Amino acid sequence: MKKTVFKPFKNEADCLQIGDDLTIENRFDRVSIFGSIDLTLDKNGLKAARELKAILDLIIVEMEKTDLPDEIAIAPVKIVDNPFA
Length: 85
Description:
This protein has 1 helix and 3 strands; from the N terminus they run βββα. The protein is of the alpha+beta class.
C-alpha cells in the first residue's frame, strides 16, 4: 500500500492517525493534534514514537522556512444548518 506523504499547511484534507486515539489534521493555517497515545516501552511504542516525531519534524521544517508572524487570528467556527435535514 502506498504511504501518503503529509505536507503540513498545504491543504485542508490530510488527516492522519497514530495508534487508535491520536489524530493529526492538516489546515492551511495550522495543524491540529488531538487525542492521546501511549508510547509503550516496546517495538510498537517505538514505531508510534517515530511516526509522531517524523510528523513533528515535517511541521517544524515547514514553519522554519516561513516568515512567521507573532500570532495569527483563527476565525471562529461558523455553524450552519444541516442541508440534508
